[in-house]
Amino acid sequence: MLGMSANSVSYNEQGSVESGVDAAQENSSIPGSFSSDLKEMLESNKESLKLEAMKRIVGLIAKGKNASELFPAVVKNVASKNIELKKLVYVYLVRYAEEQQDLALLSISTFQRALKDPNQLIRASALRVLSSIRVPIIVPIMMLAIKEAATDLSPYVRKTAAHAIQKLYSLDPDQKEHLIEVIEKLLKDKSTLVAGSVVMAFEEVCPDRIDLIHKNYRKLCNLLVDVEEWGQVVIIHMLTRYARTQFVSPWREDAMFDENNEKAFYDSEEERKVEQTKPYIMDPDHRLLLRNTKPLLQSRNTAVVMAVSQLYWHLAPKHELSIITKSLVRLLRSHREVQYVVLQNIATMSIQRKGMFEPFMKSFYVRSTDATHIKTLKLEILTNLANEANISTILREFQTYVKSQDKAFAAATIQAIGRCATNISEVTDTCLNGLVLLLSNRDETVVAESVVVIKKLLQTQPSQHSDIIKHMAKLFDNITVPMARASILWLMGEYCEHVPKIAPDVLRKMAKTFTNEEDIVKLQIVNLAAKLYLTNSKQTKLLTQYILNLGKYDQNYDIRDRTRFIRQLIVPNEKSGALSKYARRILMAPKPAPVLQSAFKDRDRFQLGTLSHTLNSQASGYLELSDWPAVAPDQSVRNVEVVKEAGAPALRKSKTAKSNEKFYSDSEEEEEEEEEGSSSEGSSSSSSEESVSESESEENSDDSNKSSSSQSEKSSSESDSEKKKKTLKNKKLQQQKPDILIITYLPPQIMQKTLLLIIMTKYILIHIVLSISTQFFVNCMCSLLHLCVFLACQFDVVSWHVHVSLQASSPVFVPETSHELLHRMTGKGLSAQYRFTRQPCIYGNSMVSLQLTLSNSSDQALENIHISEKSSTGQNIHRFNAIERLEPQASVTVSMGVDFNDSTQAANFQLCTKEDEFSVSIQPAVGELLLPITMSEADFTKEQGKLMGMNESSATITMTPENVSSQSVNRKVVSVANIGVIPSSQENIYRFAGKTVSSGSLVLVSVALKDPDAVITINTEKTVIGSMLLRQFKTALTNSCP
Amino acid sequence: MPNHPVPVPSSVLAALKNKTIHLSAAKMIHSLFLVNASGDIFLEKHWKSVVSRSVCDYFFEALERATEPENVPPVIPTPHHYLINVLRHRIYFVAVIQSEVPPLFVIEFLHRVVDTFQDYFGVCTEAAIKDNVVVVYELLEEMLDNGFPLATESNILKELIKPPTILRTVVNTITGSTNVGEQLPTGQLSVVPWRRTGVKYTNNEAYFDVIEEIDAIIDKSGSTITAEIQGVIDACVKLTGMPDLTLSFMNPRLLDDVSFHPCVRFKRWEAERILSFIPPDGNFRLLSYHVSSQNLVAIPVYVKHNISFREGSSQGRFELTLGPKQTMGKAVESVLVSSQLPRGVLNANLNPSQGTYTFDPVTKLLSWDVGKINPQKLPSLKGSMSLQAGASKPDENPTINIQFKIQQLAISGLKVNRLDMYGEKYKPFKGIKYMTKAGKFQVRT
């Protein structure tokens, strides 16, 4: 454990600035006695003591104390059965693994084992922790785990895989290419669970690979409403960037940045359209994005609302923008921090498009309780919104603000008044008068700010305002703020001709106080002196020389420079010559009036809603929004080939029509990809089996060479268990079907120990690639593997224990076939098909979930399609909500639930339209009355033992040769009945488990192959169901065609 | 341990280290620090590599510059990181970000964290967080994975981690059992992720509170400058199984702008103006809405005030009278008046006709707890203020903030028509309550 302290310093630093302090602080570790207490508690046999110790350790971590020395004691508990203890160990492990890399490796095997657990949540949790351990050595293991998880049947595990991609990428950017492959695969995923996470990974790893999005674009648009809210934000931002590269601009040239024409633009949209020479037609995909994001403006999540708003801002035609206004204004009711960000974005928007927010002007009125930065932002927006029509209201409001107790805010208001005055010429005089009144305000900051603003205003029309300049000269003595004094002096000098009597007097006063003034004031005194010298040298010649002499010896070199320059310029002597002739023209040149602009003027260079926009500087990792392409790139790249499914030709069409209407992500999509997953799973596992046979033979040969030496190397304490292990080893070798073992570049000592380790710990996967083979590393690995071996023995017994006895799992296989409910001939144009979704029904626990596709093949619209209230057979039916209107040739899919009461008796009911009633019936296949469950093999055998005798039915059949493989048996069985596959340790016995939907009785199925015969056994309390199932399995497994 | 690992030479370490450092700028939330009112970090949590707490120095600088706690800018850039903070319950939640991320994403998440703490511990104070540090850590661990939000639905979290109750704490200490749910979070997998599965109650009940807040600014002369109504419908639903509820309004047109809990079916609302949803279990906010600003907002109270300072005198006059107005016959209750008096005011000597008042000479905050307004005998607060001797009269007049409640009234006139339940057979007990409150209700003087 020697190398660790060095490790801890080198791994936890991020920026060099912080590292020094960091090390000092982190080392404020816990006192030794306390830590040994904790160690003792962790090593005790009592679960409660261990838990208590872990709780204390987490408390230490939370306080920022260093608890890394407890690592070995903690990591031993990684496989604890106590869930809370285990979770706390994870917290610890993830926190310190980076600093204690070698020891962290000890925990890896536990996670690898859990990655194969039949329970999806355990697989996911294992992947989550495994990928959070930031130890570079396990990169290959992580990579394999991610690849595997990306093809998992459970969408939740695939979601976790997407998260793990980012973690691996930040650990080792060299894996980029492999990770992109995984991302590409996951982008195709149709589950709403996965979508947000994989797009996040995409943004992280390869945001420039826009080409990966094409085929998934429409799917992402359609899934968007059903994705969880955080994922929505990420997807919307990504799609905004995508759309800017793929579609042409919906803004006509004149519409953008054209404030003046805006009014006309809003009023006469229709006319403008006619005027246009080349009509713009929006790409339907562009429209799809706008349409599908719009409902999200109603989200409760402010980040989602902001994301949609910025999408509309950057992508929507300008006349459609107004829909985002209300939602943005609504966000202003939220927390202070939310207001801050939203107001900043509104400020940027309101510069370009006043019209959007003008009706909501009053929402930006300042309240005395607002924080200062909120007040200033509101002020900014009000100023942006000011126009001839509303300026009087705004100015009245501003008058209240000027009186605010918050002086910083009052000063900002004065600036705002100044801006209004320059922008709207009608009110310039009013504003100026108001500001002059403020000059007598008691507060210094207010007066100073007024002076500065007045100075700017006067520059626009000085001749009319000599009164104001005189007034300011009178106030001069009372003003102490340097900026204000400097401003008045500048005004005096610039317009000295308007105040010929007062200016020299002011200069006289200034000559007296020159040495005590601030630098900016001194500079203006020199300026004033020079200007007066040129216009009125009779009165001011001596004063000027006096001031120039003072300036010559000033401490500040700027002032000395300026003095020297002015002297040369205005006092004619032989050296200056020609230049002094132009002195007057140089100094008294008419100066353009300053333009008062919004501070948000140039913020629109950043995408709205981003961190960069908020900071007004580019944050690291900011992705520039590209300009619209001049010509639209190929649209067909987004087309997706439609796979025709047998038996359900109408389904496709109805689905696309429906996808916008649904709100809950319905099961259909999930099922589809489950099926997809399973088929790809099939192919991948077969290929891996091949590689296994190779590696296994390798392993055997290696093993036989090395086993003797390895055994002799082992410590004596282990020797007594030697024999046992050897038998164990042989057994394991037989079982280790899916193991993949890739060891390259490993020195022999390590190799042999690794092999041993694998055998002993049931290692599912070990993949260690080492390119460095320095001597020390070999030593390291040796001792490490020793440790592993030792600990693995202890860990071997423990496993993840969870209560899964009757837990429903997702269906393994969902048939696509639909059955006819009502033919269009009998239904007078209305036809109906149903299929079993095999999902748990959301309407009731005892119901079977059904999906009904209703199509109208007549040429008239059908109205009020519903299921009549009276049911003839007494089953409990959850009816779908009445369909008000079904257009000709349209179809709609609805879901319903039927409680078949665990019998195959058909459910008869009346399907009604406005005019007609049709009697229909649904006859369920016995396999559809079940739901799959997961359980361990041991539980299965136990339960099977309880259901013997009467409850068991079995049959022997002769298998057709093509059915003998494990895949085909599995497939046949799960296609007949909705049951789950139980992992089996025996090669020729397949086990399946399910429960009946209504009563929840267990149904256990096992198929034992005895070439060429097979014995099917079904154990269930529901003997009728059992015998019916048996008959169906017999037909399925003896039938040769798939 | 049979053997000690040999120390790793520095060259290899450097190679590994470089790898960690030039790692891509990982997105989303890197670390979280909780800072109390006195500027101490009392909790830290890292989702990726550890970021030293010294990064908070930039935050403390901003805190020092800010005149009020609320004035700390929510987003603070530092050389290597960005700090995004929210202030709730006098605790700063400071998130450390490394690269571009929508700031609202982080802010919204931090507020969810606070809401969750409040939900779990009843209050969100430093003491509560410190007492429950393990639960806090477990929650934070579930809420974010690698800095990306994972489970933020309260229903899912409660399935994973049970909220501490006094009883459970006692039982846990005796039996050594745990807070962590034995079950796995199946909710995360379902199509209705906000609802727990297998919910059972003996008394099935659903309560809905329609709460409206009036935001208004009233000017000196008593005329309304701006007024709007923001409403929410908070629900407490304890129903067995998977109930499917619909809620309809008598006058849905009133609702101008709405935002929904994810459970509400948006299309149904668009088409029929009916709220149709499978509710989460327990307390949740179903809907927030804005009442269209075209409608005139009834202002339920009026204020007569006379606050004046005379030039040259060290005394000021203070008179305030409250009265009801447009209350639809309902009583105005829990009235609380507060005002930030000018800095020059040293003390106030006032006489309330009812209730009690306090004046804090340090913060200059005057607050008057009025209670219920009796229309026959209007409450008033009269007296004098003493000013700093020699100081000139303050040129600003204070703003008066008013809080009040009116029971059994939704000031906009919104009325729930009916609540129906489908999907389950039992008959639930249903209740609707209305209330009007003052939001940001200010009177300028």
From TrEMBL, chain A:
What species is this protein from?
Cyprinus carpio carpio
Compositional bias segments (type: Acidic residues): 666-678, 691-702
Which residues lie within the region annotated Disordered?
17-36, 652-731
Its biological purpose is as follows: Subunit of non-clathrin- and clathrin-associated adaptor protein complex 3 (AP-3) that plays a role in protein sorting in the late-Golgi/trans-Golgi network (TGN) and/or endosomes. The AP complexes mediate both the recruitment of clathrin to membranes and the recognition of sorting signals within the cytosolic tails of transmembrane cargo molecules. AP-3 appears to be involved in the sorting of a subset of transmembrane proteins targeted to lysosomes and lysosome-related organelles.
How is this protein positioned relative to the membrane? Peripheral membrane protein
GO cellular component annotations of the record: AP-3 adaptor complex; clathrin adaptor complex; clathrin-coated vesicle membrane; Golgi apparatus
Biased amino acid composition, Low complexity: 679-690
Instruction: Spell out the protein name for this chain.
Output: AP-3 complex subunit beta
Automatic annotation (TrEMBL), chain B:
Which CDD domains does the record associate with it? AP-3_Mu3B_Cterm, AP3_Mu_N
Any GO CC annotation of this UniProt entry:
clathrin adaptor complex
Q: Which UniProt keywords apply?
A: Cytoplasmic vesicle, Golgi apparatus, Membrane, Protein transport, Transport
The name under which this protein is listed is AP-3 complex subunit mu-2
Its chief place of residence is Golgi
Q: Where in the cell is it found?
A: Golgi apparatus; Cytoplasmic vesicle membrane
Matching Pfam families: Adap_comp_sub (PF00928), Clat_adaptor_s (PF01217)
Tell me the protein family, please: Belongs to the adaptor complexes medium subunit family.
**Could you tell me the membrane topology recorded for this protein?**
Peripheral membrane protein
Query: Entry's PANTHER family?
Result: AP COMPLEX SUBUNIT MU
One of its GO biological process terms is: intracellular protein transport
What organism does the UniProt record list as the source? Cyprinus carpio carpio
Q: Show where the MHD domain sits.
A: 203-444
